[in-house]
UniProtKB/TrEMBL annotation:
Cofactor(s) listed: thiamine diphosphate; Mg(2+)
UniProt similarity note: Belongs to the TPP enzyme family.
GO cellular component, one term: acetolactate synthase complex
Protein name: Acetolactate synthase
InterPro entries, per the entry: Acetolactate_synth_lsu, AHAS_TPP, DHS-like_NAD/FAD-binding_dom, THDP-binding, Thiamin_PyroP_enz_cen_dom, Thiamin_PyroP_enz_TPP-bd_dom, TPP-bd_CS, TPP_enz
């Protein structure tokens, strides 16, 4: 059991029974609970319904804590947030039909970002399957592209084993979501026996000619750039990554999901590249003679036009998923292995390495001076930079920031200084609006004694706004900063740049968030240009429980720089050039 969440147990006292009871599964529903218990599950996020009712009937007899979200999609995102924050497998539950279909966006979000989840869904009984029964959906077929594996369990004696296998599949290799679909009558059926066969663990290759070759390329490079992705955090390889970089003096950048894998105050950290990454970082990658990618996918938001990206660089690509090697950029050296294992192997070949890259780092440092000057000059202006600075200054080094998807997400990535390991939680590859508020529930349950802030736009925030009730009922100390521009901001920005300011269906309204918060019995405040940003953030931090600050910002504020989709660094749009 994870003792990090112990202080929230009072909210779940009704779910506990005597820990001295020895559980013997008799029904399929009890076998599911037994498997969850044996996996050390702390929290289950879900929403009951007809076909999953037997599971919910068994649940109160087990010391498993269930969080009743107000929407199944929120259950998946909350389990996702918990998994990202802890590194453990998140669990979500829904009934058949619309309950199961509502989970799918959350499963797709987790699949793209390699987050381990187990989703349990009820299904109509076996006698009526395939007959278009009430709330019957072939959720296995629907979820297949968005899961590592899916199970339909039609034998109650296979339930325990299948649940345990689902957890192993979710966390092994490249992590991801696994679906277990269980007909209602299987949950009600008697179990005759249970067995469990552990999957054979397949370790990433720690030593190979490729490892030695990667180390040699790193030692010989004159202008290397190390790119750290989400796989570094998933592997727990942050220390190894920094040791490799320090051994040769190579500058480090991160992907969006790699943010907080390297402390931003580390002297070798220079920022993040891609569509909205710093221009200086993109230019450094463009000039690099070696790109050393660890636990990242070379996705289009990083590379833009992949053929023109890092045109003079050799490429080392380390990824636990062999299918990623060569999918976008053909590596000079590809290593299909766990990041920590591979980096440890590379370190053994760098014992005689020397830092001869001072001139390269100085060139990058010089290119970043104008950018840093512009940021410094904007810190006193009302807007995103000042808001991010105020949250960091007030919440402190232990703050965990959960962002939604849109302009605010990019501003947070650009201007919030992440110095704590794994303190940045966001939806990257799938870009799921509505992710942040429910995901923050999972983060706050995992770390109840640490500050958790949500940064969201007024568009995405309204997609799962119903979770105010869940957060209030749990008494979670989550603070929310809404960057409210009255638009679907990122879509509006693209319309401005590429569609001649034809703002078709992007202006949008929302509630008075201060009054909305009041209706739920939580604190809220509205902040306008000219108001004291720092005082508003300090006020929010001082409040107990869920607190909302609605920052009204410039409706046409844009995220700069921007490399248009499919373009290269040569087509970058910078603020001073608009």
């Amino acid at each position: 059991m994870d003792n990090t969440s112990g202080s929230t147990a009072n909210a779940f006292d009704a779910s506990y029974t005597s820990p001295g009871i020895e559980y013997k599964p008799r029904l399929g529903s009890e076998a599911i609970c037994e498997a969850l218990l044996d996996e050390g599950v702390d929290y289950i996020f879900g929403y009951p319904g007809g076909t999953i009712m037997p599971f919910y009937d068994a649940l109160p007899d087990y010391p498993l804590r269930h969080v009743l979200t107000r929407h199944e999609q929120a259950a998946a995102h909350a389990a996702d947030g918990y998994a990202r924050a802890t590194g453990r497998v998140g669990v979500c539950v829904a009934t058949s039909g619309p309950g199961a279909t509502n989970l799918v966006t959350g499963l797709a979000t987790a699949k793209t970002d390699s987050v381990p989840l187990v989703a349990l869904t009820g299904q109509v009984g076996r006698p009526v399957m395939g007959k278009d029964s009430f709330q019957e959906t072939d959720v296995m077929a629907m979820a297949m592209p968005f899961t590592k594996h899916s199970f339909l369990v039609e034998d109650p004696d296979e339930l325990y084993e299948t649940m345990r296998r689902a957890f192993e599949i979710a966390r092994s290799g490249r992590p991801g979501p696994v679906l277990v679909d269980v007909p209602k009558d299987v949950q009600l059926a008697a179990c005759k026996h249970d067995t469990y066969r552990r999957l054979r663990a397949v370790e990433g290759q720690a030593e190979s000619p490729a490892v030695a070759a990667a180390a040699m390329l790193l030692k010989k490079a004159k202008r290397p750039v190390i790119i750290a992705g989400h796989g570094v955090t998933l592997s727990g390889a942050e220390r190894e990554l920094m040791l490799v970089a320090e051994r040769v003096g190579a500058p480090i950048v991160t992907t969006l999901l790699g943010l907080s894998a390297v402390p931003e105050d580390h002297p070798l950290y220079i920022g993040w590249p891609g569509m909205h990454g710093q221009a200086s970082v993109n230019r450094a990658v463009d000039k690099a003679d070696l790109v050393f990618g660890v636990g990242m996918r070379f996705d289009d938001r990083i590379t833009g036009n992949a053929e023109k990206w890092a045109p003079n660089a050799k490429i080392v690509h380390i990824d636990i998923d062999p299918s990623e090697l060569g999918k976008v950029k053909r590596p000079t050296v590809g290593i299909p292995a766990d990041a920590k294992s591979a980096l440890r192997g590379i370190l053994r070949h760098l014992e005689d390495a020397r830092d001869e890259l001072a001139e390269w780092r100085a060139e990058i440092e010089e290119s970043q001076r104008p950018e840093r000057a512009r940021v410094e000059g904007a810190k006193d202006e009302y807007g995103p930079i000042r808001i991010m600075e105020a949250i960091k200054a007030t919440a402190g080094e232990d703050v965990r920031l959960v962002t939604d998807v849109g302009q605010h997400q990019m501003w947070a990535a650009q201007f919030f200084r992440f110095t704590k390991r794994n303190s940045h939680i966001t939806s990257g590859g799938h870009g799921t609006m509505g992710f942040a508020l429910p995901a923050a529930m999972g983060v706050a349950l995992a770390y109840p004694d640490e500050p958790v802030w949500v940064v969201a736009g007024d568009g995405g925030f309204q997609m799962n706004i119903q979770e105010f009730a869940t957060i209030r009922d749990l008494g979670l100390n989550i603070k929310v900063a809404i960057l409210n521009n009255g638009y679907l901001g990122m879509v509006r920005q693209w319309q401005q740049f590429f569609h001649n300011r034809r703002y078709s269906e992007t202006p949008m309204t929302g509630p008075d968030y201060e009054q909305f918060a009041k209706a739920y019995g939580v604190a809220g405040r509205t902040v306008h240009p000219g108001d004291d940003v720092e005082e508003a953030v300090k006020w929010a931090q001082s409040q107990e429980g869920l607190t909302v600050v609605d920052f009204h910002i410039d409706p046409e504020a844009n995220v700069y720089p921007m490399i248009p989709s499919g373009m290269s660094i040569n087509e970058i749009i910078e603020e001073h050039s608009v």
